[in-house]
Amino acid sequence: MKLSIARKELAQDIKTLPIKTTKVLTRQDLVDLVQGKFIALCVSNYYPKWLCEHLCKRLLKLPEFSRYIRAQNVGVQRTGITFFETKGDPVLLERYYAEAQRMRNTIRNTCFPYLSPIDKLRVELEEIWSAGARLENIHGRPMMVGIARMFEDSFELPPHQDVLARDIVDNCSDGLLLSQLSANIYLREAKFGGELEIWGMKPSYQEFLELARDELHFDQNKLPSSEVLYKPRAGDLVLFDSGRIHAVRPSKQGPRVSMSCFVGYRGQNVPLTYWS
């Protein structure tokens, strides 16, 4: 399938957008990111490198690590079920909410007496955003936030999008997101590979179907070249619009480990939300 002229123009425009690298997370940088002034925001040394490895060793001992229910063929494991995996299944949805508090406590207790990377991010978002920040609450129940992810050697995460609205099948939401950010705090980098790849494109669901190789992933042969190829370093925080196509290249001599969540934006005077 050929990309539309508009998509080609978008891809060309995005190539001029930089990754912004900074040492401190600020409100203005978040606003600039959601407004598309740069394609990704990297806060270097966001979490102490020595503590990254210390917590990584602890987290990797958790028995909750397993592959995503909806992506059993992809060698990426996470701690606890994520909302994306429920896809309207009432049994999985109930399991998700039932496990949310327990898994938040499990991660927090595993990191104790240190502040977990996700708790650090949650506190800072609440402090820098004038309207504050809170747990996402779609069905009147607090959601999970902050999973640890481990990439198995030689596996990749194929090109895909993360869009909350596509995972809510009952239309039970308290407001449409204007932007959904993926937040990743890296604890261990793979010796080889493991680069984060981002495209400038934000296809609609119909456009995804035309470019898809399966129900979750894009056919990379139908995509133009990506605009970003970034090798994460331990301690980095990276945020980008998860509606943009993104992928992770195969990693070796890892495992590559990070903690992640989504951050929802509904306007500058509305609280940010976060979930996993």
UniProtKB/TrEMBL annotation:
One of its GO terms (molecular function) is metal ion binding. Keywords: Iron, Metal-binding, Oxidoreductase. Residues 141-265 form the Fe2OG dioxygenase domain. It holds the Pfam family 2OG-FeII_Oxy_3. It comes from the Bacteria. Belongs to the iron/ascorbate-dependent oxidoreductase family. This is Fe2OG dioxygenase domain-containing protein.
